């Protein structure tokens, strides 16, 4: 696979780069939700969070923290939203793992919004049990 993000990483197509280290790259999203919307990607191509070695997940998380700090100080943001769409059902359109960081200001439009449901405690416990069966201790 040669995703659009791999082509940015190789320099084949341009991007407004913000930060780069050995394992990760951060650049501006071309269709930003807000001014300063950044994408952080691993340089090695993985589709999903679930495919990635944990060290690379940590490297991306570190870059997210570095860029979020720059967003807060450099753009005088009042907060930021971090999103990762994993899978078509979740809205992923570029199949090269990436994390969105979008600056937030009081009163702006939400980046992520959901309708809250009100499950009873037994339902919450049933879901927790279902998940726990798939988590190795
Ligand atoms: P997602 O829907 O989570 O897969 O997000 C993909 C994001 O990549 C979208 O927000 C696009 O605007 C962004 N995008 C696609 N192509 C480029 C590009 N060449 N440079 C920067 N951002 C891009």
Mean pLDDT: 97
**How do the SSEs run, as a string of H and E?**
HEEEHEEH
Spatial strand arrangement across the major sheet: 1-2-3-5-4
Tell me the major beta sheet: 5 strands, antiparallel
DSSP summary: helix tally: 3
Compounds present?
A: adenosine monophosphate
Give the CA-based shape: globular
Rg over CA atoms: 17 Å
The count of strands amounts to 5
Low-confidence stretches: none
Structural class: alpha+beta
Strand content: 15-25%
Beginning-to-end CA distance, first to last residue: 34 Å
Helix content: 25-40%
Secondary structure blueprint with pairings:
Blueprint: H1 4-9, E1 17-20, E2 24-28, E3 38-42, H2 54-74, E4 79-83, E5 99-104, H3 121-132
Antiparallel strand pairs: 1-2, 2-3, 3-5, 4-5
Account of the protein in words:
The chain starts with a helix and ends in a 5-residue tail after the last helix. It is 28% helix and 18% strand. The chain is α+β, with helices and mostly antiparallel strands and 137 residues long. The longest helix has 21 residues, at 54-74. A hairpin with a 3-residue loop joins β1 and β2. It is globular, with a radius of gyration of 17 Å. The protein has a five-stranded antiparallel β-sheet, covered by helices on one side. The mean pLDDT is 97.
Quick recap:
The chain has 137 residues and is α+β, with helices and mostly antiparallel strands. The chain has helices at 4-9, 54-74, 121-132, and strands spanning 17-20, 24-28, 38-42, 79-83, 99-104.
């Amino acid at each position: 696979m040669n995703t659009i993000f791999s082509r940015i990483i190789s320099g084949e197509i341009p991007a407004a780069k913000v930060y780069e280290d050995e394992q990760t790259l951060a650049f501006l999203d071309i269709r930003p939700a807000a001014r300063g919307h950044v994408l952080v990607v691993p340089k090695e191509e993985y589709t999903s969070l679930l495919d990635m070695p944990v060290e690379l997940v940590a490297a991306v998380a570190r870059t997210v923290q570095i860029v979020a700090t720059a967003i807060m100080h450099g753009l005088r943001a009042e907060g930021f939203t971090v999103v990762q769409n994993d899978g078509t059902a979740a809205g992923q359109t570029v199949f090269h793992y990436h994390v969105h960081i979008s600056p937030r200001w009081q009163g702006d439009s939400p980046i992520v919004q959901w309708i809250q449901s009100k499950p009873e405690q037994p339902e919450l416990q049933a879901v927790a049990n279902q998940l726990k069966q798939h988590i190795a201790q």
